[in-house]
Write a structure and sequence with these properties.
Udp-n-acetylmuramoylalanyl-d-glutamate--2,6- Diaminopimelate Ligase, Chain: A, domain 1; alpha/beta; Rossmann fold; globular; 365 residues; 5-stranded mixed β-sheet; 2 domains
């Protein structure tokens, strides 16, 4: 393999922010005059493109940076339901390794750098003999570990992951802390940097928590929960900043109806439905809009209420589930950045550009 700048993005656990870092590094590499490629060796969440399963993160990078023609190389191995069980009884490690190595070779033919995004923590993939540590070693990569805001627990988990990379003979270039509370940034940055230095590691970035990167749109919630849209299709882009279960009295509920609120209420709670509609109409002049309303229990309001909802400029959905089941599903929903999330993509790139020491990363590859 020719010598290229080769960085592997791992993390302390799933959804710590690897894709945010990858999006930002790709752009900053380009701004430094590099020609980067992107590889997600082992993917777990997929989309179907041209009748082939492709990792979602590879698809996102392919769309954002217009390298979609390389998707078959950017996502060489995907793990669908039941795959690991099949592998255990019929291991095909050499086949999978060859796919990854072939993709790496094809992607780097005309490039001088590559960003490789792992899956979860250092040990994920071990069940198919392709842990992040195994893959990073196979590809000759140096590693960035993405952790989350905090001190003791973060350092403990970072060192646990580093131990596996050490065992595989992979160099950990440094650490990026993500989702750090803004009011604790300076203290955590100072303390964690000192703590990691004692362990022989560099802190290469401290990225503040930004709720925009967490918040889904109501359209995305509709898709994930398979909701029926009753009205307001033109407002599916609105972001859900907070969710309330409207099981309270209307005079209490009104205190929680702020911009970006998603109301979950039984379809027969006409009192709370009317409070939500009225509040939205009153505040719309100040450009404050509720995110939406989910009517639960499969209960539809009467025709007069539906007519009012259709005029309210609020996306309204219907679910057959009860109120608390819907609320629980939303509470556990993790919404990855999608190609339609133009605001999230822009913010992710700006955060990495501002808060990550990209020059040190490049200089040490």
């Amino acid at each position: 393999m020719k010598k290229i700048k080769n960085i592997f993005i791992s993390s302390i656990y799933q959804n710590a922010g690897k894709t945010t870092v990858s999006l930002g590094l790709y752009q900053t590499f380009q701004e430094r005059g590099l020609k980067p490629a992107f590889l997600k060796p082992v993917g777990q969440q997929t989309v179907t493109i041209d009748q082939a399963d492709v990792d979602k993160d590879s698809y996102l990078i392919g769309e954002v940076y217009r390298c979609r023609k390389n998707l078959k190389y950017m996502s060489p191995v995907t793990i669908g339901p039941g795959y690991t069980e099949q592998y255990i009884f019929n291991p095909q490690n050499e086949l999978l390794r060859n796919r990854i190595l072939s993709s790496f070779k094809n992607l780097t033919q005309r490039k001088d750098s590559i960003i490789i995004e792992g899956t979860g923590h250092a040990g994920v993939g071990s069940v198919i003999d392709l842990s992040n540590a195994d893959v990073a070693h196979m590809l000759g990569s140096k590693v960035l570990i993405v952790g989350e805001g905090g001190i003791g627990r973060s350092i403990d988990e970072i060192m646990l992951n580093k131990a596996l990379f050490d065992t595989a003979g992979v160099e950990v270039l440094g650490v990026i802390l993500n989702k750090v509370l803004p009011d604790k940034m300076e203290r955590i940055k100072k303390v964690v940097a000192a703590g990691l230095k004692r362990k022989g590691l560099r802190l290469l970035g401290t990225i503040p928590f930004n709720p925009l990167l967490r918040d889904p749109t109501v359209g995305q919630i509709m898709h994930f929960l398979k909701l029926k849209v009753l009205c307001g299709k033109e407002y599916l882009f609105r972001r859900v900043q907070n969710t309330i279960v409207a099981a309270m009295e209307p005079y209490n509920m009104v205190n929680y109806l702020t911009t970006g609120t998603l109301v979950i209420t039984s379809g027969d709670r006409v009192d709370n439905i009317l409070v939500a509609v009225t509040t939205n109409l009153v505040t719309a002049g100040n450009k404050q809009h509720m995110a939406g309303i989910i009517l639960t229990g499969g209960l539809m309001p009467n025709a007069k209420i539906m007519e009012l909802l259709q005029k309210s400029r609020i996306p309204v959905f219907l679910s057959e589930d009860d109120t608390y089941t819907v609320a629980g599903k939303i509470d556990h929903l993790v919404c990855k950045i999608q190609k339609t999330d133009k605001d999230k993509i822009t913010e992710a790139r700006q955060l990495v550009k501002k808060f990550v020491d990209v020059d040190t990363i490049i200089a040490n590859l």
